Amino acid sequence: MKSLTANDRPAAELLGPDPVIQTEEDLDKALNELSFLNAFDQSVNATCTRYIEKLKQESEQRKYILIDDQDLVTIESRRELLNERVNEYCKANRSSLMEGKKKTKSFPHGSVSFKDQPAKVEYRSGLKEADSLTLLDKLMQSSLVEQITAWLMSICVFGKNKEARLLSEVVELKPKLSVSKIKKAFEEKRLTADHLKQLGLKYSKGKEQLTIKPAEYKPG
Known about the structure:
This is Bacteriophage Mu Gam like protein. By secondary structure, the protein is α+β, with helices and mostly antiparallel strands. It has 4 domains: about 1-60; about 65-95, no CATH class; about 130-170, no CATH class; about 175-200, no CATH class. The chain has 7 helices and 9 strands; from the N terminus they run H-E-E-H-H-E-E-E-H-H-E-E-H-H-E-E. The radius of gyration is 31 Å and the shape is flat. It starts with about 25 loop residues before the first helix and ends in a 6-residue tail after the last strand. About 5% of the residues are buried.
């Protein structure tokens, strides 16, 4: 597509500064200008995108650092390596890093924290709530969810003049899986891991997670 500029506007064939449409010819002129404006807008956006992509490529080529004046590594690989080593050290030396009930250790250039991540029930990879509800229907060998949905959709309310209106016209009505209740039932041993698996769910135990937070860098 040719790059357009404001000078490409076919001024001689268009309406004036205060457009007045009185004839079909005027209407076509307005459509012609709208066509140009759309094309001009797309052209400017396309040019902007090309510049951005070029800048990104140039920036990526600069994302390297030299280690010991000989090893050239990417910012990302160096960051991953440092995070990995910090993680290993902190976990191996947790007791000496964190005194008493402290969860955070501050340093001149940042901090590390151990935070408790609560246990949770979550969908297995690739599954969503709708999939779990479908599995529930299959387990029950019935269309219970569909029946509940149909029942909800049939509920009527009355307007000011007593005219019937479906509640579903003003309120979103649909069954919703209660993950929190499922989690509670699992922890109370009323549901098993196999039950959860049949619903496309899994239980993840609570765990302690390390957070590495470097301070904002201030050039010396």
